[in-house]
Amino acid sequence: MEEFVFCRDSETGLQAIVAIHDTTLGPALGGTRMKVYATEKEALLDVASLARAMTYKAAMAGLDLGGGKAVIIGDPEKEKTESLLRAYGRFVERLGGRYITSVDSGINQYDIDCIRRETKYAVGGSAVGGRGGCPSPATAYGVLEGIRACATQVYGSPELKGKVVAVQGVGNVGRALCQYLADEGAKLIISDVNKALGQEIMNRFGARWVEPDEVHKVTCDIFSPCALGNVVTEETLPEFDCRIIAGAANNVLADNSLADRLHESEILYAPDYVINAGGLIYVANENTSCTSPEIMAVVGRIGERLAQVLARANREDSSPLWVADKMAEERVQSVKGLLSLRSSF
C-alpha cells in the first residue's frame, strides 16, 4: 500500500479514508463507497482490500491506471449532504490526481456531479454531450461476456439459451444483466433484499423469486452474485449447487483460499476483478475521444481476457483466481522499471 489519507471535517461531519494501493501503471482510479462501519479499523481494512483489488482489476483490464479506493463512513440515506460531498471533493483535489474517484455503493452519479464542483479528479457523473453517465450497463455487459467465456469452458459453448442463471442482487448492474441474460434465452432465478425490485424483474422476464438467504443454495447452472461481497464463505461453500460462479460483486470470496476449495469442488469461479471490470473501463475512457460504442467494444473483450485466464488455469491445474493474480502482478512488475522516467503524480 502506497498511502492512506484520513479525511476529517468537523463542519460537515465528514469522515473518510482514501487508500492508494499502487500507481505503477498510472494514477489510482476507484470508486468511493459510503456506508456505516462499526469502527474506523473496520473501514480501514475494507478500503485497503478494495484498493488492492482495483490495482489488479486495472492491470487485468489493460488500463494505464493504478488501484485506489475510498470510503466515507456514514449512512448515505441519513448523512449524505451537499456540504459533506463537497468537503470530500476538496480532499480528493488536494491529492493532485494521484487518486481519481467514481461511483460505488452509496455514491451515485449525481453525488459525483456534486464532488466534481470541488475537483476535476472524478468520473462517472451524469452524461454530458453523450459522454459519461452511469457505468452499470457496461459492468453488466462485461459480466455477460465473462459468463459466456465460463460457459464455453464448462459446457463447450458460449450459448446461454436454456441455462438457469441465479442472479443475486437486481440493482443497477443486476437488472441490466438480467436484460442481457433474458435476451440470450437464459432462465432467471433472482433475489434481492428489496423485493419491489425483484417483482419488476419477475414481471418483465418471468423470473423465479428466491429469498436472499436461500438463493446461493438453489440448483442452477450459473450463480451470479451482483450485490455486496462475502458470498462464498466456509459455511456457504458446501451449499452451492452450480457449475459456475460469475458475477459483478466485489470480494465475492470471504477468503482467497476458498478459490482453491471451489477449484477442488469443480465449481468454476470467475475472478471478480476480471469479470466486473466493465464499469472501470467505461469511466476510465470518459475523457478520451472514444465513442460509447467503441468503449463498449473494449468492455466486450473481458470475455477474451477471462478465457485466457481460464486456459492458463487449466494448463497449470490452478484456480483461476491464483492465475489472474499472477498475471496482474506480472504486468505491474514489467512496468516498474520505467518509474524513474515518470514526470507526474
Folded structure, characterized:
The protein folds into two domains: 3-56 and 65-115, Leucine Dehydrogenase, chain A, domain 1 (Rossmann fold); 136-326, 3-Layer(aba) Sandwich (Rossmann fold), CATH 3.40.50.720. It has helices at residues 40-60, 82-94, 109-115, 136-155, 172-183, 195-205, 258-264, 272-275, 278-284, 292-300, 302-316, 320-336; strands at 3-9, 14-22, 28-29, 32-35, 66-73, 99-100, 164-168, 187-191, 208-209, 222-225, 244-245, 268-269. The mean pLDDT is 92. Helix 4 crosses helix 9 (278-284) and helix 9 (278-284) packs antiparallel against helix 10. It starts with a strand and ends in a 9-residue tail after the last helix. Strands 1, 2, 3, 4, 5 and 6 form a six-stranded mixed beta sheet that branches. It has twelve helices and twelve strands. Helix content is 41%, strand content 15%. The chain is an alpha/beta fold and 345 residues long.
Helix and strand topology:
Blueprint: E1 3-9, E2 14-22, E3 28-29, E4 32-35, H1 40-60, E5 66-73, H2 82-94, E6 99-100, H3 109-115, H4 136-155, E7 164-168, H5 172-183, E8 187-191, H6 195-205, E9 208-209, E10 222-225, E11 244-245, H7 258-264, E12 268-269, H8 272-275, H9 278-284, H10 292-300, H11 302-316, H12 320-336
Parallel strand pairs: 3-5, 3-6, 4-5, 7-8, 7-10, 8-9, 10-11, 11-12
Antiparallel strand pairs: 1-2, 2-5
Brief sketch in words of this structure:
Helix content is 41%, strand content 15%.
Distance between the termini: 16 Å
What is the CATH domain class of the largest domain?
A: Alpha Beta
What is the alpha-carbon Rg in Å?
19 Å
- Provide a count of the helices: 12
CATH topology name of the largest domain:
Rossmann fold
Give the SSE string. Answer: EEEEHEHEHHEHEHEEEHEHHHHH
* Strand count: 12
The average pLDDT score comes to 92
Second rung of CATH, namely the architecture of the largest domain: 3-Layer(aba) Sandwich
Largest sheet: 6 strands, mixed
Class derived from helix and strand content: alpha/beta
Strand percentage: 15-25%
Number of domains: 2
CATH superfamily of the largest domain: NAD(P)-binding Rossmann-like Domain
Give the CA-based shape.
Answer: globular
Helix content: 40-55%
Return residue spans where pLDDT drops below 50 for at least 5 consecutive residues.
Answer: none
Binding site for NAD(+): 169-174
Domain Glutamate/phenylalanine/leucine/valine/L-tryptophan dehydrogenase C-terminal: 133-337
GO molecular function, one term: oxidoreductase activity, acting on the CH-NH2 group of donors, NAD or NADP as acceptor
Protein name: Glu/Leu/Phe/Val dehydrogenase dimerisation region
